[in-house]
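Appendix B, Record 12. Input sequence as logged:
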Amino acid sequence: MIFGAVKRAGVRALVSKGWGGLGGHEVPDGVFLLGNVPHDWLFQYVSCVVHHGGAGTAAIGIAMGKPTVVVPFFGDQAFWGAMIHKAGAGPEPVPYKMLTEELLANSITTALGPDIQSAVKSMAAKIADENGSANAASSFQQAVNMDSMRCFICPERLAVWRIRKTDIRLSTLAASILVDEQLIHWPQLKLVRHRDWYVDEGPSGPISGAIATASSVATNTISLVVEYSRNFSKSIKKPAPKDDDTSSSDSPPIKPSPSWDIPHTRNPVQAAVDFPPERIEAVAYKIATKAFPVPRGSKKKSDNLGLTKTTMSLHSKATKKAVEHGRTYNAAHETEHFAVSMAATGLRVPVALFYNLANGFHNAPLYFFHDDTVRKRDKITGFGSGVRVAGKEFTLGMFDGVTGILTLPYRGAKKEGVTGFCTGVGKGAGALIFKTSAGYTLKGLEKQFLKRYNRDLKARLITVRLRQGIAEFEQASKEKKEDVTRRWKEISAVLM
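Logged structural output:
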């Protein structure tokens, strides 16, 4: 079809072979098959481009001033094809399922016409006058409040820590210096979240919400069964350990060392420079789980960055125990883990169902009735926020639902007359039903539970920040450390 369209349009063509290896041995005259070629180089030497309508390919074609024929397959490709046609830079896009030799030839011929040529060259000139990178950076800077992200002590640095129960934000360097001087302690710090992005819009309606729940449960169950089968098979096939084998083949145990246990160090961060990675990870986990006791009094000597040998050897003991019990123990352990995971999945079913139904009812007026009065739901982070969202949804949903019976018909009549009024009545009645049916308390309970017991991700983030702070502390000059200490004393005298 492609070769026929090229011949019918009376043009020569450079055709990408693609994944399927288009062409074979019968390539007509005037057609040259290409492999992987950079578009920004190739498009300089052609008169027109024909492609799927991906955002990147479309942008390069227009920037090069080339008329563009779009044959969309899926996703946003149809959108970009429509935008190109609307701007006059190409003919109307033709979905690949409707594509014929004649339609493709006509699209190419149309694209090479003077009107489209003129329009696309004008667009290319405008793009050439822009500085896209600078504009993007400027837009980003304007959207972010940089002052709120600065460290109180070192304003040229990004704040990554916040002292609990205060608004004092510190960079990794400042925090490390202050901890080393024992002016603050690691348990007093928590990671800063400069901005929360709301991405959990939920399903478009209650039916799709129920389907999403069923699909999620089925997927999780299948994944757990497959994982259990694989791990159980490995556990019973694993050879029994020898008497002198005290290590695990999967992950060697951490061997405690007396040098790790520094119960009365004066400069904990300085001492941590020589710590092995496992020690830092263990400290991060203790901070994440709030298992680090806050020393009373900043002058009291304490192991601010310390763990005892007993704590560090827990993994070693657990690994040794698993090895000593052999196949039976491993198989039982995998079965226990599978049973617990399945139970957790079962407990989450009602949470997911009611949550997705609530989101579905919340979003239904927008998707089904085009009701733009639907409010954006607040983010749920725990039990308290879940209760607040549930109450707010019911109260505001009732208010919007009742007022919508009056406002939607009025707006419809103003826009489309009698037809719009009748449509507005239907929208208002339907929206009233959906807007008064939502609840998020169960989701809040789940979030609260996960926030309390699932600390692995938080510990990994803290590990990165601890390592960064230790590295910056090691590189900092004596003058810089003294300056940070001096500034802290000035700020703490005012704010704390």
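Residues 2-130 form a domain with the Rossmann fold fold (CATH 3.40.50.2000).
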